[in-house]
Design brief:
alpha+beta, 10 helices, disordered N terminus
Length: 325
């Protein structure tokens, strides 16, 4: 009886220890079966639970929703939004802009958890190998060395616009009706002219050109009017702001420049169009919408010794760096 009782008590203690060990190891067991986000993500998740980084991001990936701390999200997001071989200071400038985007989303949501873009991020979820760590190494460094820093105008997060490559100038937001973004001004980016992607060309056949525009114009213009009547308006930086169509009855409609260029797969809205007998030929300069920071020019300036602070100052007029708490 006593022997059985003693054995029973020992068994209960062993079971209790086993249970506690199972509970402790459960997250790691799950990670083995369902993937994990790496040691850095787990550390940041624990820090978030302890209040050190309470801001969380929910990212939609193929298998569901991946929740991770904001600063870790920025590491992955940075890796997919700027070329891997760009200078660290250019990456730091980009990291500040990405964090500024998040800060604006948190303000809008009035909370500490938001949904954010997940395109391209899922590849980092299970990959904790040497190659993945090397790809993320400078991204992580850029995020860590700018931790909490955002760009503000009059105390509020700016519209943190960036793009790949300008036509030689960035764009003035006010010319596109964006009065609330006076910090987006025309800035000289002559470095961009040295990029191999600076010039591009696209030819669109007549029928595709007309069909695409009929799909976005609310007015039912006849095909000849669409072919002959397009009038292009440009801003001071050389980007198309709108394309106007007017028929003989006086009906008029406009297509904004960004919509127009996406219709035909043009790299930017900085283009010249030449109508030929059976097609339209577009000569295009730059890559992207042209507002804010040119990543290529930022990289050139970083190589020439500018810090991320100086780079941001050159692209965003009268803005200030601030700590997002």
């Amino acid at each position: 009886m006593n022997k059985n009782g003693i054995d029973s008590k020992k068994t209960n203690k062993r079971d209790a220890c086993s249970f506690l060990l199972f509970v402790f190891l459960l997250p790691y067991v799950c990670a083995c079966f369902w993937g994990h986000v790496g040691e850095e993500t787990e550390k940041l998740r624990r820090d978030a639970m302890n209040g050190q980084d309470a801001y969380m991001v929910e990212v939609a990936v193929e298998w569901g929703v991946w929740e991770l701390p904001a600063e870790e999200y920025l590491v992955y997001r940075l890796a997919v939004t700027i070329p891997e071989d760009y200078h660290l200071e250019a990456k730091k400038a980009q990291a500040v802009l990405l964090r500024t985007e998040l800060a604006a989303l948190y303000q809008e949501a009035d909370g500490k958890s938001i949904a954010a873009q997940g395109e391209g991020l899922s590849k980092f979820y299970q990959d904790t190998g040497k190659e993945a760590k090397e790809v993320l190494r400078e991204s992580r460094q850029a995020v860590e060395e700018t931790k909490g820093m955002i760009l503000t105008y009059r105390g509020e997060p700016i519209r943190a616009s960036y793009f790949k490559l300008s036509n030689g100038y960035t764009r003035e937001a006010r010319e596109s009706g964006e009065e609330e973004c006076p910090y987006l001004t025309r800035t000289d980016c002559e470095e961009d002219q040295t990029s191999s992607d600076y010039h591009s060309a696209v030819r669109v056949d007549r029928e595709r050109y007309i069909d695409a525009l009929q799909g976005v114009l609310k007015e039912k213009f006849d095909r000849e009017t669409i072919w002959d009547a397009g009038e292009f308006s440009y801003d001071d930086s050389g980007y198309v702001t709108k394309v106007s169509y007017r028929d003989e009855t006086g009906r008029e409609e406009e297509v904004d420049g960004e919509t127009f260029r996406h219709l035909f797969g043009l790299n930017s809205a900085s283009f010249e169009a030449r109508r030929e007998e059976t097609s339209v030929f577009f000569q295009v300069t730059g890559v992207g919408h042209g507002f804010g920071m040119s990543q290529f020019a930022a990289n050139c300036r970083a190589k020439n010794g500018q810090t991320y602070k100086e780079i941001l100052e050159s692209f965003f007029f009268q803005t200030e760096l601030a700590k997002f708490e």
